[in-house]
Each structure stands twice: as C-alpha cells, then as structure tokens.
Automatic annotation (TrEMBL), chain A:
GO CC annotations, alphabetized: catalytic step 2 spliceosome; cytoplasm
Keyword terms of this UniProt record: Cytoplasm, Repeat, WD repeat
Transmembrane in keyword set: no
Protein name: Mitogen-activated protein kinase organizer 1
Subcellular location per the Swiss-Prot or TrEMBL entry: Cytoplasm
Similarity-based family: Belongs to the WD repeat MORG1 family.
Pfam families, per database record: WD40
UniProtKB/TrEMBL annotation, chain B:
Positions with biased composition (Polar residues): 230-240, 387-405, 645-657
PANTHER family membership: G PATCH DOMAIN-CONTAINING PROTEIN 1
GO CC terms of this entry: nucleus
Region annotation (Disordered) ranges: 83-108, 224-285, 362-405, 617-659
Protein name: G-patch domain-containing protein
Domain G-patch: 154-226
Length: 362, 733
C-alpha cells in the first residue's frame, strides 16, 4: 500500500494558523483543530451528506481532471480560550477533551455541550507561562499532564475538584514542548534537549540527552521506542530501554530549526511523518510539505505537497520578511495527527494556512 | 429641774462653766464628750464631708458614694441645664445687641467652680496707662532687658495730662525760661547764645531722671571705661547742664536710667581708646573720668557768665520788682557755688556737692597747687642697675649651662668629686631607642646613648640569630601550602617585583616546611627591623592570598588574563571570552551520536501518593518502604489490566481491526536482516506455542511484588512473541 498523499478533504473555518489537530478516540471519526484564533473546532472530515457544492465526494483522486476536494463539516466550535490553542488531548471515552495554550490554564471541555468543565490554572500553583502540551493519562483518564514555558510538567487530577496540581515535575531546565503519557509513565520533551521519562511505578526519572531542543514526541504503541523531533532538522527514533538511537530521519531539503513541528508515527508505525518549516526549499503557491520516511529503513517514502487550502483560497496577503523583502508565503505544517494513534486509515495535517487537510487511503 | 433646758442654753452654760475667763474670742470646747462643737474630736465614722456651703458631699453607699445629682452639684432637678441659656436660633445676636447689650457671656455657662476659678484669677490693678511718669513698673531696667522693646503703646495718663497743660514732648517741666537761642546743632556751646544778645522764651530743659545704676561689673567704682562711638547728641546728653532741647527721636518716656545703661553697657572693654572709639573730636579728653559737668571754674565770672545771668524768668516784671534773694541765691549769683543739681537747680539748703576725689586731684593738679617736687638736675639714683656690666647680652643660667660642653662626669672631675659608681640608663640604650625617647619626650638634650651591653647579657651571634628567628611570624603550614598552590596558578602577589616575589615564595616554602628551605636571606644593607617587617607583610599577604574555600570560592573565579609587568597586551586580547564551560559529557556524546548509556542518566523520582493512585500503581519502594500485601495484589492486578510497556502482550495486537499488527520490535529485527528461515521455523511452531501463552497469562498473578518478572524475563518472552507474530510482516510488503 503506497503512502497516501492525496488530500481527501479540507476542513475550513479557522481564521489563523492551526497549532494542534487531534482525532477523536477510536474509531476516530472526528477531528479537533485548535487554532490561534482562540477557538477549537470539531469537524467531521467525511460527512455522509456533502457540505461543499462539489457533488463528488468519493474517490476524488481517481478523477484526473482535478476534481474539487470536498470539505469536511464543521460540527462544533469551542471558544473559551483567551489566547491561541497550542495543544489538544481527547479522552478515551470521547466525552471530554483538554486544551491548553497561551492562557496558562488547561481547559477541560465537555464535547457535547461545548462548555468547559474545569479550568486548571489561574492560581499560584498553576502554570506561570504558556502551556505547550497537554495529555490525558492515568487510570480512566483521571489525570491531565501539561507542560509549558515555565519549564514544569504539572499533573492535574481531573476527578477531584482540586485546583492544585497533584505533582509538579521541575527537572527540566527549559520549556517543556511535548509530553506523552503511557501507562504509569510520563515522558516529557524539553527545549534543553532532554527527554525525561518519569516512571511512577518505579519512582525513577530517566533523562535521555538528545542534544538539540526537543519539540515533538510520539511514542510507539508498544512503548518501547519514542519518536523525538528536534530542532536540528532531524527526527530520531529512540529506544526507550537503553536510550539508544534506533534510527535517524532527515533529509537535506528538510529544515526544522526554529518552529515547533510535530512528527508522528503513522501507517501502523510504518512511516514517520513530519512537517516542514519550509525554509530549506520554499513551496510554490503557498503550499506546505509533509515528509514521510520508512520507519525501518529511514528512506524518504513520500514528500507530500500540502496545498494552502481549497482551490482558490491561496494566500492573498503578502508576507514581508525580516529583511524587508517580500517573502513567499508557505504553509508550514506544524501539526499532524493519524487516525487511531497511527493505526487508522487516514491522517490530517495543518499549519499556517489554518486549513486542515485530510489525507487518506481511499 | 422640771423643764428641759434648750441645747443652746445648755451649751452656753457649759462654756461659762468650763472656761469662765475667756473674754475675747471663742473658748476651747469643753471636755465633755457629749457636747457638740466644730472643733471637737469626732470619730471618723461620725465625720461628714460638707462643701463650702455646708451641703453634704457624700451620700450612701457606705458614705463613699459621690452624688452628682440635684442636691450637690448643679442647681436644677433636671440636671445641669444652664438656666440663662438662650438659643441663638430665635434670638439672634443682632437682637440681643439691641436689648441687653450682650447676648451670652461665658459666665452664663460657668458653674460655681468655674466662677470661683475666674474670680480667683482676677486681680485688681491699675491699667498700664495710669502707671504715670514716675512709676517704676515700666522701668526697663527693673522689668528686664527687653523692656525697651515692649514698652506700653501710647501715652500714659500723666503724659496726657501734661499735654493738656501745654507741655510738649522733649521739654522740661516748669515755667518757660528766657534765654538766647542755641542754633548750633550739637548744643555744644554753653548757655551763651547769639552774638546779638537776643533772648527768647524757651521751655525749660528736660531733666533726666536720676539713674541709680546697679553695679553689675567688676570694674572699679566710678570706672566708666573708654568713651565710645556715639552720636554727638548723645554725648552732649551726658553733659548734664547742657542742652537737651534738640534731643533726637527718643521719646520722653525712655527712662534715662535705661538710656544710660544702654550707653554703659558696651563699656566692658579694656582701658584705652581704639581708633574705632575715636569720635573724631580732638578736644575730648579720652581719659576723662567722671561726669562732664560743665560749669565755670573761674571765680568771678566773665563775659559769658554775665550773659548767662541775663536769662530772665518769663515774667519780665520780675526783674523790675525788687525781690527777696535768699542767701543761697545770692551765693549762686556770686558764683561761689555754681554747680547745680542734675535738674538744673541749686542744691538744697545745707547741702553741698560732693566732690569726687580723682576729679578733685585732677583739679588740684591742673591748678598746680601742689606740684610734685622737682628732681635736681644731675641726680642719679643709687638703686639704679648698671646695665653695662653684663656685656650687653643677657644670658640665663640655663642657657649658660647648655652652652657648656661638660657632662656630669667631667664636671665631677673638674670639681674633684669621686666618680659615681653607677651608670646612666642611656649608657645601655642603643641610639635608636634613645631617639625614640627623645621624640616621645620632646627633649633634645638627652645624653647620648652608648649602647653598652652588660657583661652577663652579651649575646653570641648564634643567640642573636635565634632571637631574630623567633620574631619571624609563623604561618600555618596549610595556609602556606594553599597560598603556594594559588601562587602556582599564576595569581601570586608582587607580580611587578620579581625579587620580592622570590622572597615571598621562599618564605612560603619555609613556612610550609619544604625540605631545607631557609628563610629569605637578609639583604646586606637591610636592618633587622626591615627584614622582619617584610616577613610580616608576607605573612599577612599569605593570609589574604590563600585560596578561598566553600561558599566564597564558588562565587569568584580567577581571572584568566595575567598581567605580566613589561609585557604588551595586544589589542585583540582586550575582549576576553569567558572560558567555555566544561561540557556535559552526555551532551558531548549526544552530539557525536553516541546515544545509549552515555546519554542516559537515572535519578530518583518521588511521585505523590495521589499520582500513584490515579495511575493505579503502588507507590515505588523508596517512597513506601514497607509495601503491604494488598499493594502487592493490586500490583499484580494492574499488571494484567495495564500491561507493562516492556512486556509484549498479545491482547494488544488482537484488538486492532486492520489486520495483524506489526510491532516495532519485529520491524527492527527484520530490518537487521533476519533470515526467512527463522520465520519459517517459527511459523511451524506457531500453533504449538499459542496454548502455552494462554496458560502463561493466568499464571501471572503469582508474581512477587518485589521482583518484576515481566521486566527480567523479557528476552525469553520476546522470542516467544516473535515466534507468534513474526510472520505477519510479510503481507504488508
């Protein structure tokens, strides 16, 4: 099965760059997109009834005459944030999800009513800076783990009404950019170039030095390895048992040295997917790029060109760079999500354009 | 006695009986205790406190209660209500002014006490205006120094009366006097007026009050001090008989005593007259003492005198009518006694003016009555010193003694005395000590120090050396060593003096006890003191330059740039980069791609109990040393529910819908190029191993909590699982 590189849907509605996308828990019917326009949108990428004026929904890539890509349906918009939304995490029962961002608190939402259940923050014991990442964890998703610019990972109890975090992990010496929970382990990636694994069961904190600043973490299903994206344009596949590097994924044309670009495992962990901050080889017409490597060989499987949006929605605004010259505007793919944690049949990407593009095997 | 006597009768009777001889006043009370009398003794319990109006002050409550009610303090039943209070709301001040003159006075609001206080504070006295001319109440001297400043404003009543009678300020009191006009300003000229002899009626001259000056200074009686810089008019004022018509602005109410005092006050200066005190008039005798009373000293009078006599009273007819001239007046006219009192009158009958002795003496001398005897020419006193005999220059005995070169010994030799057996202290002092003594005492004539050493105390050179070495400051060995090491790092003191640095090092090595290092050698011209001083300096220097320890050492770092005397610093070195931090070996390894044990570090982590509970895991062993059995069972339950990440669990794989999952481990192992043969072998065994797994999983609850077999037995399980699922990767290709 070839790597799916054809977009099957566009999810529109965001007025700014999208920083986080997430599939709902299994079976991953819906997509949540957290935008810098301070709201979170819930989409159905493949609705049964057509949303867009285009009539052909099925098999768009089989028609050669560039059929219009259908639009997903915007189901709900969640707006309570006062700042950009930087991270999303959906509970396993799909009833709640958590979001965090610039307003230094973790919001726990009720999906159905579109209201926040809890807002963890705004007091002395909460984050004192932007929250970069949030993840559910624990038994029955009883915990929320968040990490942010204040170099701390805070573990919140969702069940109790306490506004104080259960625990604050302060080992990191720079901002926390990624956190993931598996079992009784909390793995955090920090700008200080370290991946820290807090094993609650054993009471051990294992620090793995990666070197460059870590921006993304994606754990394999079996928990034996973790994919570490870092700001040296490389993605490393690290063995969690002994800290060794199993594989390194890179490409001369890939540049990732400034932006937080997410990298995930996908396609039943066959592929490693990563966005591109588009400084190495600028795309045309505002398009972005998505890289896919074979997990085992480390070869580039695909270089998917992600359009800015639907046809006709290319960026009109010109971007003036720091040097005063007109800069080509490009769609920096900053967030990627694979359905069912990498085992589904589709994935979605988004970035600067604010349009979530869904790719799939169909 | 049939009828009862009245009490008054009884008492009067009793008094008459007890004290029959009292004719005046009240007799002492009778000794009969039954008789009531104010002066008699009353026991305390019978005593009553009454106010000045005889009202009882204490009521009830064991007679200690103080009643502030109606009967005692204020006069109304309702309590204190000012009876004369008139509300100003209806009765305005304006209306009150028409009616009663005044609306409300403060007295209306006063009670008895306040009124009593007010009455007490009032004193009857005359107003200041009525104090009159002669009152001493306003006298500045008596009232205090500032009286002149705070004089009563306006005129006194006496002045007002005088004004009514035609008196004017500055004039004397009395009938007008006919005399010639004095046209000169200062009034220096005497009574004689114009040359044309015209006379006018003038008010009599103002007469100053007699000032009885309290003597406050310690000068001799009659001493007035030097005359001082005063305006002409005031100096003229001194002249008692002189004119005071043209008195300057000072009003008539300035008491002359105060006026005089003001003038005498600055007279505390020394004798003599400074240039500043010169009034400019040469004819004034600066040493003149005594009142400058002007009078004629010439008996018989002269033309002026006659002119003065021409002054006639106001009434011209007085002249024509023969009048009785008393003897005194005749005498006055004869000029025998022309001195007048200060008020310009002749002294009273029977009184003569006192004469001050010095004044008198000067008078005598001026008259030349008793000249001192004249010294005959050519007389020489026998007591006169002959100054020529001392050869002009005078030399004191001490000077003469100083000039002699003899010391006590030589003097003794000269005098033929026996030599003293002892020696002076200075014989044993060394010159340095003698100089110190001389500097301390300030005497330069100390005998020279000889620096002798008594026989018994003479030191051998070895002993001297030992003594010197004993004075060398001892440095702690550890400090010396640390200072040496610090010096070896390049930050030694005395960087600009190589020789001194060498000596310093030698001293440190000596203190550290390195081998046979001796103290730095003394320079040939260096005195012992200098040598020792330098060593002491080295000692304190080593104390300072020893390396820092502990907290301080962590705060400071040694500068890497060394300053070497004479070397030129290139311009590129001005900006010195801080030394790179010692790189973290883990980071170094990560940079080189050597991920693994070198980049991994493990620390203890203490999860909170709630965190463990939420993760549904038992707290780690170092958090809870004594894990009970319940936790152990829970542990086993949780391991089945949430599989250990390092354990490959079969249930995970089967849950996925889309085909058989390929685990990463297998992928990696396949990538390492495992042969297909192995897979074929495993495939064959697949069916046989599956039941084994099924049996192995229920066996898990028996796992001991302290030993995690899932972790330790991983390798074997991997092989088993690979055997199970190893073939599934083929259909992905």
């Amino acid at each position: 099965m070839a790597f799916p590189d054809k977009p099957i849907a566009h999810l529109l509605g965001s007025n700014g760059p999208v920083h986080a996308v997430a599939y709902s828990a299994s079976p991953g019917t819906y997509i949540l997109a957290g935008s810098s326009d301070r709201s979170i949108r819930l989409y159905n990428p493949s609705p049964s009834t057509s949303v867009a004026p285009s009539s052909h929904v099925t098999k768009p890539h089989q028609t050669s005459a560039a059929p219009p890509i259908p639009q997903g349906r915007l189901i709900q918009s969640y707006s309570a944030h006062g700042y950009e939304v930087l991270s999303l995490s959906i509970a396993a029962d799909n009833a709640r999800f958590a979001s965090a961002g610039g307003d230094r608190s973790v919001f726990l939402w009720d999906v159905a009513t579109a209201q926040t259940i809890r807002r963890l923050g705004g007091n002395q014991q909460s984050h004192s800076g932007r929250i970069n990442c949030v993840a559910f964890g624990g038994d029955d998703d009883a915990l929320l783990v968040s990490g942010g610019l204040d170099t701390t990972v805070r573990v919140w109890d969702v069940r109790s009404g306490s506004f104080k975090p259960i625990q604050v992990l302060t080992e990191a010496r720079d901002a926390i950019t990624a956190v993931c929970v598996r079992g009784a382990e909390i793995v955090s990636g920090s700008v200080d170039g370290r991946v820290r694994t807090y094993d609650v069961r054993a009471g051990r904190c294992v620090t793995d030095v990666v070197g460059p600043s870590v921006t993304s973490l994606s754990m394999s299903k079996d928990g034996k390895a973790v994919l570490v994206g870092s700001l040296d344009s490389k993605i490393r596949f690290m063995d969690r048992r002994d800290g060794g590097c199993l594989k390194t994924y890179a490409d001369p044309a890939l540049k990732n040295e400034q932006l937080r670009v997410q990298s995930i495992l996908g396609g039943k962990e066959q592929y490693v997917l990563a966005g591109d901050e588009m400084t190495g080889a600028p795309g045309q017409n505002g398009e972005g790029r998505l890289w896919a490597w074979d997990t085992l060989t480390g070869d580039v499987v695909a270089k998917v060109s992600v359009p800015w949006g639907p046809v006709g929605s290319e960026p009109k605004k010109k971007l003036i760079g720091k040097d005063g010259k007109e800069k080509e505007r490009s769609n920096v793919i900053s967030c990627v999500a694979w359905r069912e944690d990498g085992f589904g049949d589709q994935y979605c990407v988004s970035g600067t354009s604010g349009v979530v593009t869904v790719f799939g095997y169909h | 006695m049939s009828h009862k006597r009245s009490r008054a009768n009884f008492e009067a009777d009793l008094q008459a009986q007890q004290s029959p001889y009292v004719l005046f006043g009240t007799p002492l009370p009778p000794l009969d205790p039954e008789v009531r009398d104010d002066g008699s003794y009353v026991p305390v319990w019978k005593q009553e406190v009454r106010d000045e109006r005889g009202r009882k002050r204490l009521h009830g409550a064991f007679t200690g209660g103080f009643s502030a009610g109606y009967f005692n303090t204020v006069g109304s039943k309702e309590g204190w209500t000012p009876s004369t209070f008139v509300s100003s709301r209806s009765n305005r001040w304006k209306d009150g002014a028409e009616g009663q003159g005044q609306g409300q006075r403060p007295e209306d609001f006063m009670d008895d006490e306040d009124l009593a206080e007010k009455a007490e504070s009032e004193k009857l006295q005359t107003a200041t205006d009525f104090a009159g001319l002669g009152s001493t109440g306003t006298d500045g001297v008596r009232r205090g120094g500032l009286a002149d400043v705070f004089r009563a404003q306006g005129e006194t009543m006496g002045v007002k009366l005088l004004r009514r009678m035609g008196w004017k300020d500055g004039q004397g009191i009395g009938p007008k006097v006919r005399r010639g006009a004095r046209l000169d300003v200062g009034g220096q000229s005497k009574v004689g007026g114009d040359s044309d002899g015209q006379t006018h009626l003038f008010a009599p001259e103002n007469v100053p009050m007699i000032a009885l000056i309290k003597k406050l200074d310690r000068k001799g009686l009659g001493f007035e001090g030097e005359s001082k810089l005063t305006p002409i008019s005031s100096s003229a004022n001194k002249t008692v008989g002189g004119s005071s018509d043209e008195e300057d602005g000072s009003g008539p109410l300035i008491r002359p005593s105060a006026f005089n005092r003001k003038k005498t006050k600055p007279s505390r200066g020394g004798i003599g007259m400074g240039i500043l005190n010169d009034t400019g008039s040469d004819d004034e005798d600066p040493y003149e003492v005594g009142p400058q009373i002007s009078y004629n000293r010439v008996i018989g009078g002269d033309k002026k005198k006659k002119k003065a006599l021409k002054a006639t009273p106001v009434n011209p007819s007085l002249r024509s009518v023969p009048v009785f001239i008393s003897k005194k007046n005749a005498l006055a006219k004869a000029g025998t006694n022309l001195r007048k009192c200060h008020d310009g009158r002749l002294p009273l009958d029977g009184f003569v003016f006192g004469v001050r002795p010095d004044n008198f003496a000067s008078e005598i001398n001026s008259e030349g009555k008793y000249p001192p005897p004249k010294i005959p020419p050519g007389w020489k006193s026998a007591k006169q010193r002959n100054m020529d005999s001392a050869n002009g220059a005078y030399t004191s005995t001490s000077d003469a003694a100083k000039s002699s070169q003899l010391d006590p010994k030589s003097r003794a030799a000269l005098l033929g005395e026996a030599q003293l057996p002892g020696k002076s202290v200075f014989d044993f002092l060394d010159p340095a000590a003698r100089n110190r003594l001389a500097a301390a005492t300030g005497k330069v004539n100390l005998p020279p120090a000889l620096g002798e050493v008594p026989e018994g105390y003479a030191l051998t050179p070895e002993e001297k050396q030992r003594q010197l070495l004993a004075q060398v400051p001892t440095l702690d060995k550890s400090i010396a060593i640390s200072a040496l090491t610090r010096g070896a790092q390049g930050s030694a003191p005395y960087a600009d003096d190589e020789a001194k640095r060498g000596r310093y090092r030698t001293y440190l090595e000596f203190s550290a006890g390195f081998g046979k290092v001796t103290l730095p050698a003394k320079a040939p011209l260096q005195s012992n003191e200098d040598w020792l001083r330098e060593l002491r300096e080295f000692h304190s220097c080593a104390m300072i330059f020893k390396p820092m320890t502990g907290m301080m050492a962590s705060r400071f770092t040694t500068s890497t740039s060394k300053f070497i005397a004479g070397s030129t610093v290139s311009s590129t070195d001005v900006l010195t980069k801080p030394a790179p931090k010692p790189a973290d070996p883990a980071e170094e390894a990560a940079k080189m791609g050597m991920y693994g044990t070198m980049t991994r570090s493990t620390t203890d982590f203490y999860p909170t109990r709630l965190l463990c509970k939420r993760f549904n895991v038992p707290p780690p062993a170092h958090l809870q040393p004594d894990a009970d059995s319940e936790a152990a069972t829970r542990n086993s339950a949780s391991t089945t529910a949430a599989p250990n990440p390092y354990t490959q669990s079969g249930s995970n794989g089967t849950s996925h819908a889309s085909g058989v999952p390929i685990t990463l481990d297998e992928l990696l192992q396949q990538a390492q190029g495992d042969s297909n043969a192995a897979i074929a072998v495993i495939e064959g065994e697949k069916k046989s191993t599956q039941p084994e797994i099924a049996t192995a999983v229920p066996a898990k609850p028996e796992v001991d909590a302290s030993v995690n077999e899932a972790l330790e037995g991983k390798r074997a399980q991997d092989d088993v699982l690979k055997a199970i699922f190893g073939d599934s990767s083929d259909d992905e290709e």
